[in-house]
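#structure-requests
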Amino acid sequence: MNGEVGRRRGPLQGVTVVELGSLIAGPFCGRLLGDLGARVIKVEPPGKGDPLREWSLVTDHGSLWSMVQSRNKESVAVDLRREAGQALVRRLLTKADLVVENFRPGRLEAWRLGPDDVWPLHPRLIYVRISGFGQTGPYRDRPGFGSIAEAMGGLRYITGFPDRPPLRVGVSLGDAVAALYAAMGALAALWRRRETGRGEVVDVALYEAVFSLLESILPEYGYAGLVRERQGNALLGAAPSNTYRTRDGIWMTIGANADSIFRRFAQAIGRPELPEDPRFRDNQARRAHVDELDAIIQDWVGRHDAGDVWKILNEAGVPAGPVYSVKDIAEDPQYRARAMILPVEVPGVGTVLMPGVVPRFAREPGGVDWPGPRLGEHTRKVLEGDLGLGGAEVDRLARDGVIQLADVARAGDRGHA
């Protein structure tokens, strides 16, 4: 894990991905594919590279977020605003299986890197395109971030408490969901290519990815004209399912909403009569009287410490768990046992904790072989090894400012150098 490109592992061994774009959704998709063994060549602009290198907590060797997001990737610094840079990347695309990009629609076409430009040279290339509003439609050309997608996709409208403004989830959920759909689309296109021999365009819109999460909200509106409003922590469709504060100040989430689980729950808290109460006899009755039921549960939870609540409910077979901080997660034995807390050595920084690889594979697991590289760390390797350029030509391109080499760092480079 020292930044050198070594043997990749995982079920996507042999798949080559060129990652274009920056920040969150596109690079997150590239990270997912790289975690599973694909070779991911990340193309960044010379100078500062992907802006994520300077987001969140930044060390002298770059941002910690970027170290995670760009793990397992090779960094090639090429100026796509220049024709010579576009020509290099066009040649690189002819060597790839997938290209992942999250520019505004039309940008790749302006650089002659779109499907119509590259498919005549390499008809098997799969384009994975992530944008705010998709490649078509009246909003196609509008800028869009994950935050806008969460708002217009309907998620923020239902997040929070009814007497307060809509809330943002504490992470970039819109980007992450779009990246997951993009990775799924990439795999589906790879599978289909085995039969057709042709490439594909996978079109992922951020707002659509968010909208797809809304469960029964759309059919409820279409059927009954219902508009779901913010409900706080309660699960609208089933009860009881909420978060309750323990005697020692820990928030505990409890889901006892199925009838059989509710009976076990009632026994566990010393209230075996509750399932026979007409107010709580079945799910619809419990939903109608959820405030009364939550008050009963809060009274019991508030008289016990979190450890006792969890022990009692686990022994009764009732789903429950504390609301974890990242400190709790890092110290939890379940996370450790499943290698979800990965210590990765970053040169010049030390040990950086990274999330493990999801999903797990029994026979060919993915992994993290190196952290996010220095800007341009692999430019020479890729141009000489993959494109067949001579060393003198690579040096000339670097002098002309078309590319950047890790050993020719510019002012403002916040990579690992």
